[in-house]
Amino acid sequence: MTGRIIGFIGAGNMARSLAGGLLANGWPKQDLILSDPEADQRTRVSQTMGLAAVENNGEVADRADVLVLATKPQLLKAVADGIAANVQKTRPLVISIAAGVRIDDLQRWLGGNLAIVRVMPNTASLIGSGAAGLFANTFATQSQRDEAESILRAVGVTAWVETEDLIDAVTAISGSGPAYFFLVMEELERAAVAHGLDAATARLLTLETAYGAAKMALEGGEEPGQLRRRVTSPGGTTERAIQALEAGHIGELFGNAVTAAVRRARELADILGRQ
What we know:
Elements: E1 6-9, H1 13-24, E2 32-35, H2 39-49, E3 52-54, H3 57-63, E4 66-69, H4 76-90, E5 93-96, H5 103-110, E6 116-120, E7 130-136, H6 142-152, E8 156-160, H7 166-175, H8 177-194, H9 199-219, H10 224-230, H11 237-247, H12 250-273
Parallel strand pairs: 1-2, 1-4, 2-3, 4-5, 5-6, 7-8
Antiparallel strand pairs: 6-7
Helix pairs in contact: 3-4, 7-12, 8-9
Protein backbone atom coordinates (compact mmCIF):
# COMPACT_ATOMS: atom_id res chain seq x y z
CA MET A 1 0.00 0.00 0.00
CA THR A 2 2.90 2.31 -0.72
CA GLY A 3 2.32 5.71 -2.21
CA ARG A 4 -0.26 6.54 0.44
CA ILE A 5 0.90 9.32 2.75
CA ILE A 6 0.25 8.72 6.45
CA GLY A 7 0.34 11.89 8.51
CA PHE A 8 0.43 12.08 12.29
CA ILE A 9 -0.83 15.08 14.22
CA GLY A 10 1.25 14.76 17.37
CA ALA A 11 4.64 13.13 17.64
CA GLY A 12 4.47 11.65 21.12
CA ASN A 13 5.11 8.09 22.24
CA MET A 14 2.11 6.50 20.55
CA ALA A 15 2.60 8.29 17.24
CA ARG A 16 6.29 7.37 17.20
CA SER A 17 5.51 3.75 18.05
CA LEU A 18 3.02 3.51 15.18
CA ALA A 19 5.43 5.17 12.79
CA GLY A 20 8.22 2.88 13.97
CA GLY A 21 6.02 -0.18 13.47
CA LEU A 22 5.19 0.92 9.94
CA LEU A 23 8.87 1.45 9.17
CA ALA A 24 9.69 -2.00 10.52
CA ASN A 25 7.03 -3.41 8.20
CA GLY A 26 8.61 -1.77 5.17
CA TRP A 27 6.66 1.46 4.87
CA PRO A 28 8.74 4.04 2.94
CA LYS A 29 10.09 6.88 5.04
CA GLN A 30 9.01 9.43 2.45
CA ASP A 31 5.38 8.37 2.95
CA LEU A 32 5.31 9.27 6.65
CA ILE A 33 5.12 12.78 8.10
CA LEU A 34 4.50 14.03 11.63
CA SER A 35 3.72 17.38 13.18
CA ASP A 36 4.19 18.60 16.73
CA PRO A 37 4.37 22.03 18.35
CA GLU A 38 7.33 20.99 20.50
CA ALA A 39 10.73 21.32 18.86
CA ASP A 40 12.20 18.52 21.01
CA GLN A 41 9.60 16.07 19.72
CA ARG A 42 10.26 17.06 16.11
CA THR A 43 14.00 16.71 16.60
CA ARG A 44 13.56 13.25 18.12
CA VAL A 45 11.51 12.12 15.12
CA SER A 46 13.88 13.50 12.53
CA GLN A 47 17.12 12.43 14.19
CA THR A 48 16.20 9.01 15.57
CA MET A 49 13.72 7.88 12.91
CA GLY A 50 14.76 9.84 9.85
CA LEU A 51 11.21 11.08 9.25
CA ALA A 52 9.88 14.46 8.24
CA ALA A 53 8.60 16.41 11.24
CA VAL A 54 7.00 19.84 10.95
CA GLU A 55 5.42 22.35 13.30
CA ASN A 56 2.34 23.18 11.23
CA ASN A 57 -0.54 20.70 11.57
CA GLY A 58 -2.12 22.08 8.41
CA GLU A 59 0.91 21.02 6.38
CA VAL A 60 0.37 17.42 7.45
CA ALA A 61 -3.39 17.60 6.89
CA ASP A 62 -2.81 18.93 3.37
CA ARG A 63 -0.53 16.04 2.43
CA ALA A 64 -2.01 13.04 4.22
CA ASP A 65 -4.16 10.35 2.64
CA VAL A 66 -4.51 8.90 6.12
CA LEU A 67 -4.49 11.33 9.03
CA VAL A 68 -3.75 9.93 12.48
CA LEU A 69 -4.84 12.19 15.32
CA ALA A 70 -2.45 11.41 18.15
CA THR A 71 -2.85 14.43 20.40
CA LYS A 72 -3.95 14.58 24.01
CA PRO A 73 -7.76 14.31 24.22
CA GLN A 74 -8.19 17.69 25.88
CA LEU A 75 -6.31 19.34 23.00
CA LEU A 76 -8.11 17.58 20.17
CA LYS A 77 -10.92 20.09 19.67
CA ALA A 78 -8.48 22.95 19.19
CA VAL A 79 -6.38 20.82 16.85
CA ALA A 80 -9.45 19.73 14.88
CA ASP A 81 -10.71 23.30 14.59
CA GLY A 82 -7.33 24.31 13.22
CA ILE A 83 -7.25 21.68 10.45
CA ALA A 84 -10.96 21.44 9.60
CA ALA A 85 -10.66 23.49 6.42
CA ASN A 86 -7.68 21.41 5.29
CA VAL A 87 -9.33 18.02 5.77
CA GLN A 88 -12.54 19.20 4.10
CA LYS A 89 -10.43 19.80 0.99
CA THR A 90 -8.30 16.66 1.09
CA ARG A 91 -10.88 14.19 2.58
CA PRO A 92 -8.39 11.80 4.22
CA LEU A 93 -9.22 8.73 6.23
CA VAL A 94 -9.09 10.03 9.81
CA ILE A 95 -7.86 7.70 12.54
CA SER A 96 -8.28 9.01 16.08
CA ILE A 97 -6.33 7.42 18.91
CA ALA A 98 -7.39 10.13 21.38
CA ALA A 99 -9.02 8.39 24.33
CA GLY A 100 -12.55 9.43 25.22
CA VAL A 101 -13.39 11.48 22.12
CA ARG A 102 -16.50 10.22 20.35
CA ILE A 103 -16.71 10.15 16.57
CA ASP A 104 -19.75 12.44 16.40
CA ASP A 105 -17.89 15.12 18.33
CA LEU A 106 -14.77 14.77 16.22
CA GLN A 107 -16.89 14.80 13.06
CA ARG A 108 -18.54 18.03 14.20
CA TRP A 109 -15.20 19.68 14.96
CA LEU A 110 -13.75 18.66 11.58
CA GLY A 111 -16.71 19.86 9.53
CA GLY A 112 -18.54 16.58 8.87
CA ASN A 113 -18.89 13.83 6.26
CA LEU A 114 -15.47 12.29 6.86
CA ALA A 115 -14.44 8.64 7.12
CA ILE A 116 -13.32 8.24 10.72
CA VAL A 117 -11.97 5.23 12.59
CA ARG A 118 -11.77 5.53 16.36
CA VAL A 119 -9.07 3.43 17.97
CA MET A 120 -8.24 2.56 21.56
CA PRO A 121 -4.64 1.32 21.64
CA ASN A 122 -2.63 0.57 24.77
CA THR A 123 0.83 1.29 26.05
CA ALA A 124 2.22 -2.09 25.01
CA SER A 125 2.09 -0.70 21.46
CA LEU A 126 5.34 1.01 22.41
CA ILE A 127 7.08 -2.39 22.31
CA GLY A 128 5.12 -3.86 19.41
CA SER A 129 2.81 -5.93 21.62
CA GLY A 130 -0.23 -3.70 21.69
CA ALA A 131 -3.90 -4.62 21.73
CA ALA A 132 -6.25 -2.16 20.04
CA GLY A 133 -10.01 -1.94 19.61
CA LEU A 134 -11.38 -0.20 16.50
CA PHE A 135 -14.73 1.23 15.42
CA ALA A 136 -15.48 2.86 12.06
CA ASN A 137 -18.27 5.24 11.14
CA THR A 138 -20.53 4.70 8.13
CA PHE A 139 -18.44 6.94 5.87
CA ALA A 140 -15.48 4.54 6.09
CA THR A 141 -15.29 2.06 3.22
CA GLN A 142 -14.09 -1.51 3.63
CA SER A 143 -10.75 -0.62 2.07
CA GLN A 144 -10.35 2.23 4.56
CA ARG A 145 -11.20 -0.11 7.43
CA ASP A 146 -8.57 -2.52 6.13
CA GLU A 147 -6.05 0.30 5.89
CA ALA A 148 -6.70 1.44 9.46
CA GLU A 149 -6.34 -2.12 10.69
CA SER A 150 -3.06 -2.63 8.85
CA ILE A 151 -1.63 0.50 10.48
CA LEU A 152 -2.56 -0.62 13.99
CA ARG A 153 -1.42 -4.19 13.35
CA ALA A 154 2.08 -2.80 12.83
CA VAL A 155 2.31 -2.56 16.64
CA GLY A 156 0.14 -5.44 17.85
CA VAL A 157 -3.21 -7.16 17.53
CA THR A 158 -6.51 -5.53 16.59
CA ALA A 159 -10.19 -6.23 17.22
CA TRP A 160 -13.19 -4.47 15.67
CA VAL A 161 -16.22 -3.70 17.80
CA GLU A 162 -19.77 -3.43 16.43
CA THR A 163 -20.87 -0.29 18.27
CA GLU A 164 -18.90 2.72 19.41
CA ASP A 165 -19.96 2.42 23.03
CA LEU A 166 -18.01 -0.85 23.18
CA ILE A 167 -14.84 1.23 22.84
CA ASP A 168 -15.43 2.11 26.50
CA ALA A 169 -15.19 -1.59 27.37
CA VAL A 170 -12.02 -1.86 25.27
CA THR A 171 -10.65 1.11 27.20
CA ALA A 172 -11.40 -0.61 30.50
CA ILE A 173 -9.88 -3.96 29.46
CA SER A 174 -6.91 -3.35 27.18
CA GLY A 175 -6.44 0.41 27.49
CA SER A 176 -6.30 0.43 31.29
CA GLY A 177 -5.52 -3.28 31.58
CA PRO A 178 -1.71 -3.13 31.67
CA ALA A 179 -1.97 -1.24 34.96
CA TYR A 180 -4.03 -4.06 36.49
CA PHE A 181 -1.32 -6.58 35.69
CA PHE A 182 1.40 -4.22 36.94
CA LEU A 183 -0.50 -3.97 40.22
CA VAL A 184 -0.67 -7.76 40.52
CA MET A 185 3.08 -7.91 39.86
CA GLU A 186 3.70 -5.29 42.54
CA GLU A 187 1.74 -7.25 45.10
CA LEU A 188 3.39 -10.58 44.22
CA GLU A 189 6.82 -8.98 44.57
CA ARG A 190 5.85 -7.50 47.92
CA ALA A 191 4.56 -10.84 49.17
CA ALA A 192 7.70 -12.63 47.98
CA VAL A 193 9.93 -10.19 49.86
CA ALA A 194 7.76 -10.57 52.97
CA HIS A 195 8.49 -14.30 52.85
CA GLY A 196 12.23 -13.85 52.69
CA LEU A 197 13.23 -13.48 49.04
CA ASP A 198 15.47 -10.56 48.17
CA ALA A 199 13.93 -7.84 46.00
CA ALA A 200 15.86 -8.69 42.84
CA THR A 201 14.92 -12.36 43.00
CA ALA A 202 11.30 -11.51 43.79
CA ARG A 203 11.09 -9.25 40.75
CA LEU A 204 12.79 -11.71 38.39
CA LEU A 205 10.55 -14.60 39.42
CA THR A 206 7.41 -12.45 39.28
CA LEU A 207 8.08 -11.00 35.85
CA GLU A 208 9.15 -14.29 34.29
CA THR A 209 6.14 -16.04 35.78
CA ALA A 210 3.82 -13.37 34.36
CA TYR A 211 5.50 -13.63 30.97
CA GLY A 212 5.31 -17.42 30.99
CA ALA A 213 1.65 -17.45 31.98
CA ALA A 214 0.75 -14.97 29.23
CA LYS A 215 2.76 -16.96 26.68
CA MET A 216 0.98 -20.17 27.68
CA ALA A 217 -2.41 -18.47 27.38
CA LEU A 218 -1.55 -17.06 23.95
CA GLU A 219 0.04 -20.17 22.49
CA GLY A 220 -1.52 -23.08 24.37
CA GLY A 221 -4.88 -23.12 22.63
CA GLU A 222 -6.76 -23.39 25.94
CA GLU A 223 -8.85 -20.83 27.76
CA PRO A 224 -7.32 -19.31 30.92
CA GLY A 225 -9.77 -21.13 33.18
CA GLN A 226 -8.69 -24.48 31.81
CA LEU A 227 -5.03 -23.58 32.15
CA ARG A 228 -5.63 -22.58 35.75
CA ARG A 229 -7.35 -25.88 36.50
CA ARG A 230 -4.50 -27.81 34.90
CA VAL A 231 -1.89 -26.24 37.17
CA THR A 232 -4.02 -26.50 40.32
CA SER A 233 -3.40 -29.88 41.91
CA PRO A 234 -6.07 -31.01 44.42
CA GLY A 235 -4.85 -30.43 47.95
CA GLY A 236 -1.73 -28.60 46.76
CA THR A 237 -0.25 -25.17 47.30
CA THR A 238 -1.83 -23.59 44.22
CA GLU A 239 -5.30 -24.74 45.24
CA ARG A 240 -4.85 -23.22 48.69
CA ALA A 241 -3.69 -19.92 47.16
CA ILE A 242 -6.63 -19.82 44.74
CA GLN A 243 -9.02 -20.48 47.60
CA ALA A 244 -7.57 -17.50 49.47
CA LEU A 245 -7.99 -15.25 46.43
CA GLU A 246 -11.57 -16.38 45.90
CA ALA A 247 -12.35 -15.85 49.58
CA GLY A 248 -11.20 -12.28 49.05
CA HIS A 249 -13.73 -11.93 46.20
CA ILE A 250 -11.13 -11.38 43.50
CA GLY A 251 -13.72 -11.81 40.75
CA GLU A 252 -15.93 -9.13 42.25
CA LEU A 253 -12.96 -6.80 42.65
CA PHE A 254 -11.99 -7.08 38.98
CA GLY A 255 -15.61 -6.72 37.92
CA ASN A 256 -15.93 -3.55 39.97
CA ALA A 257 -12.65 -2.23 38.58
CA VAL A 258 -13.73 -2.71 34.96
CA THR A 259 -17.15 -1.18 35.65
CA ALA A 260 -15.50 1.86 37.25
CA ALA A 261 -13.21 2.29 34.25
CA VAL A 262 -16.13 2.02 31.78
CA ARG A 263 -18.13 4.62 33.72
CA ARG A 264 -15.18 6.98 33.83
CA ALA A 265 -14.56 6.57 30.09
CA ARG A 266 -18.17 7.62 29.43
CA GLU A 267 -17.89 10.55 31.84
CA LEU A 268 -14.75 11.81 30.11
CA ALA A 269 -16.37 11.45 26.68
CA ASP A 270 -19.30 13.55 27.89
CA ILE A 271 -16.96 16.20 29.27
CA LEU A 272 -14.83 16.37 26.11
CA GLY A 273 -17.91 16.40 23.89
CA ARG A 274 -19.21 19.54 25.58
CA GLN A 275 -16.19 21.56 24.47
